[in-house]
């Protein structure tokens, strides 16, 4: 398909793709180029993988999705809304431009006091614009802090991209299609149309699986990239020489995304209706997925594994502190603890039990023939 045909397909099915040649869209274009390179590298490395196209979509909601438009071919799409771009750009500017956040990363001496938001739990661009007007994002003053911002930004979007890729490669989209599920743009919202009901636990199992897929791919990349970052200044190179610190930063970035998505303790009703597992549960699952991944790349002794686990927990605690620091109002701090509560543990267990049932069915449609045995 030509680029014009792909743009046209997105516009028909999912919403207007961002015009990357337009003035003002340079920052999105730079990120889109990086994400396209990453996506193509994965697709070219696996000749069994289908054709997949990626676009940023003009949509204010904090959302991304994968789908298979009905073109009579094995073509899939991944879309990330501009809402995610501008919200994360704003948050990262505030984080890296602050003299009291992530003080072990680069030189903070030139940065200002934190420029707070009334509430950093933003699920749509309106939530952001209400709080800050339409001014430009904060740019950190010191180069090392701008690089930190770029690393964080790339980590966040790479994991969003790979999460959606996981939905395709691991067969979730085709499984849903078998049951007559179709993603449709109605009014201004993306919603599923369906012929047969699928239980929420199945959807949540897919989310868990896509999170694990993304975590594994990201950790893989980080470990391979250690020591080879070309843009890091000499005095800052040590950061890129340690996968330990980079994986920690990645955990930090993931927590921030999940914190935005789940900034509250879900009520039982909300737990029962949401097709995503609660944020705290997803966070614990991502940690176990990356521990498995790190352990298979670099064989770890039991005490090293424990040290990693503690380090990740430290990153989560720190990300929670950052979220509080960014907020001028008092935020609920209980959302992550939910993952470890009895109700959270029960959800965790039910997902693992469901995975055992669903995995053989997924294997029939997955492009990845090595789906995990255990979640
Ligand atoms: Zn998902």
Question: Mind explaining what this structure looks like?
Answer:
It is a single chain. By secondary structure, the chain is mainly alpha-helical. The chain has one domain. It has 13 helices and five strands. It has helices at residues 3-13, 26-44, 82-96, 125-132, 143-169, 172-178, 200-225, 237-240, 243-261, 268-273, 279-297, 302-326, 342-365; strands at residues 51-57, 64-67, 75-81, 182-186, 189-193. The strands form two sheets. The protein has a three-stranded mixed sheet with strand order 1-3-2, sandwiched between helices. The mean pLDDT is 85. The structure holds zinc ion (ZN). Zinc ion is lined by residues 163, 167, 207, 210.
**What's the rounded overall pLDDT mean?**
85
Detail the poorly predicted runs.
Answer: none
The total count of helices amounts to: 13
Instruction: Give a list of the ligands.
Output: zinc ion
Biggest sheet: strand arrangement: 1-3-2
Which of globular, elongated, flat, extended, rod-shaped describes the shape?
A: globular
- The topology string of helices and strands comes to HHEEEHHHHEEHHHHHHH
Our measurement of the CA-to-CA distance between the termini, rounded to an integer number of angstroms, reads: 36 Å
Task: Name a few traits of the molecule.
mainly alpha, 7% strand, 13 helices, three-stranded mixed beta sheet, globular, two-stranded antiparallel sheet, binds zinc ion, 375 residues
Summarize the structure.
It is built from 13 helices and 5 strands. The chain has one domain (3-365).
Write the layout of secondary structure elements.
Blueprint: H1 3-13, H2 26-44, E1 51-57, E2 64-67, E3 75-81, H3 82-96, H4 125-132, H5 143-169, H6 172-178, E4 182-186, E5 189-193, H7 200-225, H8 237-240, H9 243-261, H10 268-273, H11 279-297, H12 302-326, H13 342-365
Parallel strand pairs: 1-3
Antiparallel strand pairs: 2-3, 4-5
Helix pairs in contact: 2-5, 3-5, 5-7, 5-9, 7-9, 7-11, 7-13, 9-11, 9-12
The structure holds zinc ion.
């Amino acid at each position: 398909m030509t680029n014009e045909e792909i743009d046209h397909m997105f516009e028909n099915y999912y919403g207007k793709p961002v015009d990357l040649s337009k003035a003002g869209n340079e920052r999105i274009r730079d990120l889109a180029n990086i994400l396209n390179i990453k996506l193509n590298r994965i697709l070219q490395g696996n000749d069994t993988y289908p054709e997949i196209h990626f676009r940023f979509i003009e949509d204010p909601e904090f959302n991304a999705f994968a789908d298979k438009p009905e073109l009579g071919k094995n073509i899939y799409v991944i879309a990330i809304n501009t809402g995610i771009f501008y919200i994360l750009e704003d948050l990262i500017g505030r984080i890296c431009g602050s003299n009291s956040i992530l003080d072990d990363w680069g030189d903070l001496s030139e940065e200002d006091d934190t420029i707070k938001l009334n509430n950093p739990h933003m699920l749509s661009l309106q939530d952001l614009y209400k709080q800050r007007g339409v001014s430009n994002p904060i740019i950190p003053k010191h180069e090392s802090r701008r690089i930190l911002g770029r690393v964080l930004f790339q980590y966040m979007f790479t994991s969003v991209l790979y999460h959606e890729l996981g939905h395709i490669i691991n067969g979730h989209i085709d499984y849903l299609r078998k049951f007559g599920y179709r993603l449709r743009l109605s009014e201004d919202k993306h919603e599923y149309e369906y012929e047969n009901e699928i239980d929420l636990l199945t959807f949540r199992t897919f989310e868990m699986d896509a999170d694990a897929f993304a975590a594994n791919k990201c950790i893989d990349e980080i470990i391979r990239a250690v020591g080879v970052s070309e843009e890091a200044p000499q005095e800052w190179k040590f950061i890129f020489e340690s996968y330990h610190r980079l994986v920690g930063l990645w955990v930090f970035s993931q927590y921030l995304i999940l914190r935005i998505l789940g900034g509250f303790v879900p009520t039982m009703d909300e737990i029962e209706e949401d097709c995503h597992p609660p944020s705290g549960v997803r966070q614990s699952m991502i940690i176990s997925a990356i521990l498995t991944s790190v352990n298979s790349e670099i064989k770890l002794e039991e005490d090293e594994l424990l040290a990693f686990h503690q380090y990740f927990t430290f990153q989560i605690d720190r990300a929670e502190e950052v979220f509080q620091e960014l907020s001028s109002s008092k935020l609920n701090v209980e959302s992550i603890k939910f993952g470890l509560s009895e109700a959270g543990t029960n959800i965790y267990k039910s997902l693992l039990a469901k995975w055992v049932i669903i995995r053989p069915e997924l294997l029939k449609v997955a492009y990845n023939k090595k789906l995990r045995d255990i979640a």
